[in-house]
Design brief:
heterodimer; A: alpha+beta; Ubiquitin-like (UB roll); FAD/NAD(P)-binding domain; Arc Repressor Mutant, subunit A; seven-stranded mixed β-sheet; six-stranded mixed β-sheet; 26 helices; elongated; B: alpha+beta; Folate-binding fold; two-stranded antiparallel sheet; Sarcosine oxidase subunit alpha family protein (chain A); oxidoreductase (chain A)
């Protein structure tokens, strides 16, 4: 069993005990512990259960690669699922709970999945959940939902109380990784005069080197690291960040750093996480290497750990993985673990080495220390269920006699894989190194930047140099060249030196024993978290999976939260073997950012609540607010949907607003409508290209309704165009279309007709606009005073500029309601003043503000279209009966050629009609008109759909418009609209004219 | 997260300042064009793995459209130049060919 040992633990402070709880049980650790080391120190070896079979799981690793020790951290609004115990720094009163366990870690119901393991092979989702179809909804989906996900999702109604922020940084050289390689590279780059930033994901500098021992430049590695950090910290051109992971490397030197600012000091007022958005000219990835597990039967039993992790826990935290440890290895590093444990006075059962002989320096030391070496052997089985109690040792092949040994921990080393993730994120390529049995970065095929030159260079173990002396030399060179490439100099300082060690080559052993039968292969775990075994990958190969990417998705190998950091290389080696091809031919899956999961909140940063997106307010926003308006978001704007009075529902308010406008007069805040000025000698020519109708002939002071189409012929926007002067036009657009249409105009002007003398300006926010509509509208405008608005002086569809109520104003006589109607535009800063003036002038006439819903209904009563209701990007003006607004005289306009295409002129297009329900009911939004017969999928044929549907208070019944097959030719015909209430009832509606109110237009023309 | 230098205002702009406008140097087909020519104009795009000519707008900057010749695989930017350029300029083509001797050029 794991336990704390005396006289060890370079990172912990035994004078500062910390209390924490796991699954509600209190424990004690020390300052400097990780949650994982504290748990192991407290004798907790089983920390969770696996995803599929709910197998007991213990801590395997000591860093970011940990697949098993994921916990729910905190509670309430602080709950965070899937936190890795190995990278969670211990703090006082930390609260952790195990995941994927029910009802408890010790007694778990899901463990029955183990008993039926042979029915849950690779691809079982695809195989099992297909048939019968009905079972999906009632059987499979509830089951998957119940068992899906490891951690517990925080309460949906809860709110994260912590704060997060983004930070921007520009640097010449970004060094990712603060181990000895990263520090060496940073020193070399800084000496070359480059501005350097160094990111280290852990709280400590130096990486794993202090655990491995060794000397650098004649100093103990720990002392060398301290001196190097002091050096760097003293330089003005160097920025150092600990607890900051290099999460991703992107195009042109963009990189993301994820800083866990106060995870370990909760409640101290600092932001919890900080996302660093970095631009670097050169990036050095000194990301180290990760040890691989060995695939032997029972390698997932708690107590089986990576050999490097076993010595990390011993040296860094004074924690022993067990009292009697067996080491199993295929390379020299396993011996280091045996030596560390032996030196701490712990019992080492022996070293099982897959190689026939051991000649390396470490093996020699182990032999001298009296450790039992078992050469050419394999672990062929692990005893124990919830913790290791022993192991079975055979020849490497698994044949012949076996020996049982007693042990309570197994330290395994399957060799090392350089962390190539960040190198690969932006396209760096890899080579398979047969000698070292690893994929290593190919310096000749690096990620390239804007100039086509390499912008990422690897350093140290990340380059595949596993020995200290070679790693330091490589890192020094990486730092030098990065500084030079970033515009600095090549430093003449020498690389730090370390003694050369005698190393014996690794023996790649992808399964152990090598000739294990299927029963054993079913117990060799590759992916611990997702329960993918050697047998699963072999089955996938037998079933025809050849691509490593497909195999990954089929078996779920490497798809867990650790993203295959431990499992990928072993898995693809097994796949290669099963396919009978060399490893490089199989290749790797794609490495994608982030390197390890980062919090969504860090990505969000400050962009939440009010800062989530900018809110656009009209100049009258505050007045609406004071009236108790019901807001509707329109783009980034807020528009008043309705203005309910005390005791009134929103629906009642809408009806009142409509009736008051139709009987008296209403006022609308129309400021959000787009207003774009088109000006210049060629403006008329340009306007004729933009709009389907002729705009160049519009008289000064006149208004005309116009349509804009995309080059594809589809209706894109509409609005009233005003000829302000000989050379300038004012284009009104929809609220949502203003920016888009302005951009569209600029595109054509800049990229196609750049020799035309035209200037555009989006003046939407420069003007406040107020619609005044209703039979008494003229009386209101007259009361404001300043302009002659009599019928003769200012007929329908005209405009004048002058003063109203003592304010400079533009007045448009246009109507979207069908009533006598004006729109007053004043400079934005006088909008509120004009609103108040109109309200006051209108008071004797019963003026009331009306909102967007009243506006929508009134325009529907008139049969006016609304962009986004009647149009959806597939509708042409001809579909909407707007042929009158399409010029036949103009040679060209945007969309003209497209509208000549045969299918645009097809008689089978759905066309706009009015719909009058027989019983006055309101057709549901989006309802389809159903015809006779069924289509190839057995669904009822549809012959049309509703585009706008409302209760009309004016007509006291439901009105609608819709697009219907041959609609205009079917006037008077009654068609059926399906409802979604599940009863199969239909609403019968008669096809009629789109205009329901004042067809002659007499009301507006007074 | 590309960085492209706007030829109009000279700023090396981050991708977040820019808006992409698809393939560059398309010739507008309009009234009088054949169905095939019009279809090609509206829908046929090169989408190459390699050298590509693109339209970009410095949307959150000077507002101007410009063109970029870049490599969709290596992310190398060969040149950015005025949006008012009907064909890839000779010096840009030369620069690309110097770096990419195997490039077959625009059709």
């Amino acid at each position: 069993m794991s336990h704390r040992i005396d006289d060890a633990g370079r990172l912990i402070d035994r004078s500062k005990p910390l209390r924490f709880s796991f699954d509600g049980k209190p424990h004690t650790g020390y300052a400097g512990d990780t949650l994982a080391s504290a748990l192991l120190g407290a004798g907790v070896t089983m920390v969770g259960r696996s995803f599929k079979y709910h197998r007991p799981r213990g801590i395997v690793a000591s860093g970011v690669e940990e697949p098993n020790a994921l916990v729910n951290l905190g509670s309430g609004n602080k709950l965070e699922p899937n936190q890795r115990a190995t990278t969670t720094e211990l703090f006082d009163n930390l609260e952790a709970r195990s995941q994927n366990v029910w009802p408890s870690l010790a007694f778990d119901i899901g463990v029955v999945n183990q008993a039926i393991a042979r029915f849950l092979p690779a691809g079982f989702y695809y195989k099992t959940f297909m048939f019968p179809r009905a079972a999906w909804k009632h059987l499979f989906e509830p089951f998957i939902r119940q068992s899906a996900g490891l951690g517990k999702a925080p309460d949906a109604e809860g709110r994260d109380e912590d704060t997060y922020e983004h930070s921007y940084h520009h640097t010449d050289v970004l060094v990712i990784g603060g181990g000895v390689a990263g520090l060496t590279a940073a020193k070399a780059a800084a000496a070359g005069g480059a501005k350097v930033m160094v990111l280290e994901q852990e709280a400590h500098w130096g990486g794993r080197t202090p655990v491995e021992g060794g000397e650098i430049d004649g100093m103990a590695s720990e002392a060398w690291i301290a001196a190097a950090v002091e050096d760097l910290a003293g330089m003005d051109n160097v920025t150092l960040r600990t607890r900051t992971m290099g999460a991703g490397v992107y195009d042109h030197g963009y990189a993301l750093g994820y800083e866990r600012v106060s995870d370990h000091t909760p409640g101290d007022g600092r932001p919890r996480h900080r996302l660093w958005r970095i631009r670097a000219k050169q990036i050095v990835t000194a990301t180290g290497a990760l040890e691989r597990p060995l695939s032997f039967p029972g390698n997932d039993v708690p107590g089986v750990m990576l050999a490097s992790a076993v010595r990390d826990y011993a040296v860094n935290y004074g924690v022993a993985a067990g009292r009697r440890t067996l080491v199993v290895t295929n390379n020299d590093d396993g011996y280091l673990t045996a030596l560390v444990l032996k030196n701490l006075g712990l019992d080492v059962v022996g070293v099982v080495d897959a190689r026939a002989t051991a000649t390396g320096a470490n093996a020699e030391r182990a032999r001298k220390a009296g450790i039992k070496l078992m050469m050419g052997k394999a672990v062929a089985g692990v005893k124990g269920k919830r913790v290791v109690t022993g192991a079975i040792i055979t020849d490497l092949s698994g044949k012949g006699a076996s020996t049982d040994v007693e042990c309570d921990a197994i330290a395994m080393s399957g060799g090392w894989s350089p962390v190539v993730h960040l190198w690969s994120h932006c396209g760096g390529k890899l080579n398979w190194d047969d000698g070292e049995a690893m994929f290593r970065p190919d310096p000749d095929r690096p990620p390239s930047g804007a100039a086509g030159e390499a912008f990422v260079v690897t350093a140290g173990a990340a380059s595949g140099f596993l020995s200290l002396e070679k790693g330091l030399a490589d890192a020094h060179e990486a730092g030098r060249t990065a500084a030079k490439a970033a515009g600095g100099k090549l430093t003449r300082k020498a690389a730090p030196k370390a003694a050369e060690e005698e190393r014996q080559p690794i023996k790649p052993v992808w399964i152990m024993p090598t000739e294990a039968g299927v029963e054993k292969r079913m117990k060799m775990w590759l992916d611990y978290q997702n329960d993918v075994k050697v047998s699963d990958v072999q089955l996938a190969a037998r079933e025809g999976y050849q691509s490593v990417e497909h195999t990954k998705r089929y078996t779920t190998l490497g798809m867990a939260t650790d993203q295959g950091k431990l499992s990928n290389i072993n898995g693809l080696a097994v796949l290669s073997d099963a396919l009978g091809q060399p490893i490089p031919q199989t290749g790797t899956t794609t490495f994608r950012p982030p390197y390890t999961p980062i919090s969504m909140s860090a990505i969000t940063g400050e962009a939440r609540g009010e800062l989530f997106q900018p809110l656009r307010r009209t100049p009258m926003h505050h007045i609406h607010e004071e009236c108790g308006v019901n807001w509707e978001p329109v783009g980034h704007w807020r528009r008043g949907y309705a203005y309910p009075r005390a005791g009134e529902t929103v629906h009642e308010a809408v009806n009142r607003e409509i009736l008051n406008t139709r009987e008296n007069v209403g006022m609308l805040d129309a400021s959000t409508l787009g207003k774009i000025i088109v000006k210049g000698p060629d403006a008329g020519k340009f306007m004729n290209m933009l709009y389907t109708n002729v705009m160049s002939t519009l008289g000064v002071g006149k208004c005309r309704y116009g349509l804009m189409c995309s080059e594809n012929g589809f209706l894109s926007d509409d609005g009233v165009v005003v000829r302000l002067a000989e050379d300038s036009w004012l284009c009104h657009t929809t609220t949502g279309g203003a920016d888009r249409i302005h951009s569209h105009m600029e595109d054509w002007l800049q990229c196609e007709w750049w020799d035309w003398k035209v200037y555009t300006a989006n003046v939407t926010e420069q003007w406040a606009q107020i619609g005044v509509a209703g039979p008494k509208a003229r009386a209101v405008i007259e009361a404001l005073g300043g302009m002659d608005v009599s019928k003769d002086a200012m007929p329908f569809m005209t405009y004048q500029e002058g003063e109203l109520a003592g304010m400079p104003a533009r007045l448009f006589r246009i109507s979207f309601t069908g009533e006598l109607s004006y729109e007053i535009a004043v400079p934005a800063h006088r909008g509120a003043e004009m609103w108040e003036a109109v309200a006051k002038a209108g008071e004797p006439h019963g003026i009331q503000p009306y909102g967007t819903e009243a506006m929508h209904i009134m325009r529907a009563e008139k049969g006016f279209i609304m962009i986004g209701d009647e149009t959806d990007g597939t509708v042409i003006p001809q579909d909407l009966g707007l042929d009158w607004a399409i010029s036949k005289k103009k040679e060209d306009f945007l969309g003209k050629r497209a509208q000549e295409r045969s299918f645009m002129a097809s008689p089978d297009r759905w066309k706009l009609v009015g719909l009058r329900t027989l019983d006055g009911a309101v057709i549901p939004d989006g309802a389809y008109a159903v015809g006779d017969g069924t289509n190839a999928n057995g669904q009822r044929n549809v012959i049309g759909r509703v585009t706008s549907t409302y209760y009309s208070p004016t007509l006291r019944k439901g009105i609608a418009m819709g697009l219907v097959h041959n609609g205009p030719d079917r006037m008077g015909e009654v068609i059926d609209f399906a409802t979604l209430d599940g009863t199969g009832t239909v609403i019968k509606a008669e096809i009629c004219d789109t205009c329901f109110y004042d067809k002659e237009g007499a009301k507006a023309d007074v | 997260m590309l960085i492209l230098t706007c030829p109009c205002c000279g700023i090396a702009a981050d991708e977040t300042e820019l808006e992409n406008g698809g393939e560059a140097h398309l010739k507008r087909a309009t009234v009088g064009s054949s169905d095939e020519a019009f279809e090609a104009y509206l829908f046929d795009r090169a989408n190459p793995k390699g050298v590509h000519f693109e339209r970009w707008r410095h949307a959150y900057g000077c507002g101007k459209w410009f063109l970029a010749a870049r490599d969709t695989v290596t992310l190398e930017v060969y040149a950015t130049y005025s949006g008012q350029t009907p064909e890839p300029p000779a010096d840009v083509v030369k620069a690309i060919k110097a770096k990419r001797p195997d490039w077959e050029g625009t059709a």
